[in-house]
Amino acid sequence: MIIIVVRTLILYTLVIVALRMMGKREIAQLQPFELVVILMISDLAVVPSENVGIPLLSGIIPILVILSANLTLAWISLKSEKARDIICGTPSILIRRGEIDEENLKRNCYNLTDLLEELRIKNVPNIADVEYAVLENNGELSVFPKAQKRPTIPEDFHITPQYEGLPITLIMDGKLNIKNLQESKKDLKWLIGELNKQTINKVEDVLIASLDSSGTLFTQAKQHSPSKLKHR
Fold first, then answer.
1. CB pairs under 8 A, 24+ apart, for 221-227?
2. Where along the chain do its domains lie?
3. Considering the chain, what is the average pLDDT of its residues?
């Protein structure tokens, strides 16, 4: 039993390392050859972990070979646009200038029901509002509405909104992030003062506290704390 546990942990660690080396992408964002690599690695890792009679190297070596092949293909596709088109494919335009491209639909085994469903997912219920729809290599559908149907933006009204950066989390689950506090150019005395204004006496009583680019501090106390959800 101990041998099985150890073998499983070794293979599990190896699979995690292999997937991390492939980069940070969700399943839906993987290229076809990357998805094949994940499926093969998972199958190769299962067999040695279930059967003690199979040498552990019989699982480790194929995983390393597949990982090496994947990294090689990734490097080639990064350096050569032509190779990238062969390995990953090219995007297909399903709707061009408001008209459905039937040939591309057939070529990608994409029917009208699938197209309408994807448009609804993209919050475009009316196909007549679409100027372009592009089927990306990872299977995602990029939708570009017609000019008169796209959402308005401040630039349309010649408005320049204030800069909005990413909020900085200062406290999470009662733990102070010193690095983020320094990055926000605030000090602990200021933070404690702001918490006291909201009847929170200790950092440990805070579930989360974040500071946005406008200087607004958002805090929420833990349930056991008398403080409630507040904004400054």
1. 222/174, 225/200, 226/199, 227/198, 227/199, 227/200
2. 2-86, 92-149, 168-231
3. 85
